[in-house]
Amino acid sequence: MTKEMQSVEERLAIVEDERAIEKVLADYALALDWIDMELLDKVFWDDAEIDYGFFQGSGRDFKPVVMDVEKSLGRRMHMVSNVRLSVTGNSAKASGYHLSIASPEVDKPVPDGLSVFAGYYLDTLEKRDGRWGISSRKHILVGGSQIPEIPLEGDMDALNRIGETRGPHPERDKLPYR
């Protein structure tokens, strides 16, 4: 059916599904950054097929593994961009770039530096009981780098800082997705 033949309601349903899928992909990054297992549980179906190279298995088994990795870091920030997706009924294919930045230590006089990783996500999502979730994900790493971190001094010292985030961060409940 061509776009011209679809009703406004059909086109709106597609846009709503696409927006819901983009939210799932963004929620993955937020769940890791804010150590939010409740949110991560909504991202992956328990029976999802996950392949990160270092981990291959179910969504159920992946969630605590990836959360333990994130908890081992002092600070982290994940981004998903350039999302492309195609929805067919209650199934969708999606791809996106990812960039993650992490630091093992927090509030040191001379920071250790930031680890930066970039890559791709190749996802299949399914809509079950009216909710979208990832049913398969393959992570493809492009590369990583260690970059120096500068101490925040002078005027920069007055900036709000995230601080330690190995556990659920106290600012988490102020985020608009909660």
From TrEMBL:
It comes from the Bacteria. Residues 15-138 form the SnoaL-like domain. InterPro entries: NTF2-like_dom_sf, SnoaL-like. It holds the Pfam family SnoaL_4. CDD domains: NTF2_like. SUPFAM superfamilies: NTF2-like. This is SnoaL-like domain-containing protein. It comes from Novosphingobium marinum.
